[in-house]
Write a structure and sequence with these properties.
Number of helices: 5
Radius of gyration: 16 Å
Mean pLDDT: 84
Strand content: 25-35%
Distance between the termini: 23 Å
Order of helices and strands: HHEEEEEHEEHHE
Largest sheet: 8 strands, mixed
Number of strands: 8
Low-confidence stretches: 1-16, 179-191
Shape: globular
Helix content: 25-40%
Structural class: alpha+beta
Length: about 190
């Protein structure tokens, strides 16, 4: 028998997975010069990176949030959800996961890439201005293609480095228990 907490956790996971699927059409709108590696999940790391976008305007680590309501900043670099503190430090945890990914990419490529962290919200009013949530930019899901193409927050990548970073990310993704890659965004077929 499941307790209330287990039921809530299962529903949150279902909602999160739905949001991660909803962003795929927006990522498919990216030009062919961009590659999306999805669901980077490491056994020795807490949580996953929903999508890593690699292209000429930079590297973007995307965490999709399928929340409803309003997101603002708390004045200390974290999120407020509907005016209240969240159950965990989302900005800090996501930044740590992204830095872990950066270290892994650096070890494989000998490059030191800058990765812009982005929360993409599906059904949320976003009133968290850039800089108010530390290194993580908060945007609405439908803004993601424009945000990446225009390189907002990212740092351009030399053309010669892009294939090395894509190869490294795809190698890391193969280590993940479930995975999907894009040069057309292949959906996860493992369930």
């Amino acid at each position: 028998r499941l307790c209330d907490k287990q039921i809530r956790m299962a529903r949150n996971e279902e909602d999160g997975a739905a949001g991660e699927r909803e962003i795929i059409p927006y990522l498919k709108n990216l030009p062919d010069t961009f590659t999306v590696v999805s669901d980077l999940d490491f056994a020795d790391s807490y949580g996953n990176i929903d999508h890593l976008v690699i292209g000429p305007t930079g590297l973007f680590s995307i965490d999709v949030k399928n929340w409803r309501g309003t997101v603002t900043a708390d004045g200390k670099g974290e999120l407020l959800y509907n005016g209240r503190p969240t159950d965990k430090p989302h900005v800090r945890a996501f930044t740590a996961r992204t830095m872990d990914l950066k270290d892994r990419l650096k070890a494989l490529t000998k490059l030191d890439p800058y990765i812009q962290c982005v929360f993409a919200f599906a059904r949320t009013r976003v009133d968290a201005n850039w800089g108010t949530t530390g290194p993580v930019h908060c945007i609405r899901m439908e803004q993601i293609s424009d945000y990446i193409i225009k390189g907002r927050g990212g740092k351009t990548i030399p053309a010669a480095d892009i294939p090395r970073l894509v190869s490294a990310a795809e190698a890391l993704q193969k280590l993940a228990p479930k995975a999907s890659v894009k040069n057309g965004v292949k959906a996860d077929t493992t369930g």
